[in-house]
Input
Amino acid sequence: MKLLEAGILGVGSALPPKIITNFDLENIIDTSDEWIRTRTGISERRVVEEGVYTSDLATQAALSAIDAAGTCAEEIDLIIVATVTPDTFMPSTACFVQAKLGAKNAMAFDMSAGCTGFVYALSVGSAYVRMGTCKRVLVIGAEVLSKFLDWQDRTTCVLFGDGAGAVVLGPVEQPGFLNFTLGADGSMADLLVIPGGGSRLPASAQTIADRQHYIKMCGNETFKFAVRVMGEVTQQALEAAGCSKDDLDFLVPHQANLRIIESARKRFNLPEDRVVINIDRYGNMSSASIPVALDEAITSGRLQRGDLVALVGFGAGLTWGAAIVRY
Ligand code: ACO
Output
């Protein structure tokens, strides 16, 4: 079977307007703007108002990606939503998005791969295009993490924010995806987990009293893993794509901590303006961080058609992944 080439036709994003600054957090927990900025690089984050769900942000991002791609909802034949904060466990958030878009010709499902979710979903979406099964694929990374944060736990609640980013994929002449390198190590699953609410620890009065429905993270261990894996997986993906670090125009990394991003930037000897950063304004938006950063770089005119881009993620699972993209 001859495979087609797949590429990114359009990109979009959506952020809730409400801003919570580090100074606002000083009023609710024992923390400081100085601690958060120096340890993480975050100054503020966005959070949704009551009544706004992951599917709402996902739909808004999808509409702007559909517009940028010059297509319409009826032409979309697959919707993949990468999320760790779905509207409901059942059905998938992708099905809510399908209905909200009126994308009546699309099949729809979610993918869960922690903060690597968008890169994983991109690999699946591009495979559907390459096989010729789909012509217009929406890949969305969307999160409402604010509803899964323990706002009494200063070690996690300062880190995350809400948002969504989306791309439309379709067949193109020149290869848009040069390599995907993806991995997982489930033996480290407990480093980053929402323990309650699944079949392992079903919801009960006790799990609620124990605050088991919130994100728990071993920050230090995750940090060491992230620094190591981000450099390694980017290097492996570049080599597998037949490229060197000198060919790279932009690094669009997952935005978990500015110090993690800086270590990758130094490893690849990239000038600061070649690394797309938005953690200062949005915190860690898990699956949404990479597509939102990608959209901002494109919309601002920094990232141009033809640029070679590495999208690199890591997160709960633990999972990791890099995509080498010719935009
Ligand atoms: N304000 C003030 N002090 C704090 C805060 C806070 N918000 N949070 C923790 N502290 C304190 C701790 O209690 C600790 O105090 P102690 O020494 O008296 O015990 C001290 O600060 C140092 O804590 P550490 O956890 O060692 O701080 P560290 O420098 O490791 O930074 C951080 C913590 C920012 C969480 C870092 O470890 C990190 O970024 N980890 C990686 C996160 C990540 O990559 N996540 C993966 C993706 S997420 C996903 O997949 C959904």
In short: The pocket of acetyl coenzyme *A is lined by residues 31, 35-36, 39-40, 84, 114-115, 154-155, 158-159, 192, 219-220, 222-223, 226, 256-257, 284, 286, 315-316 (CB under 6 Å).
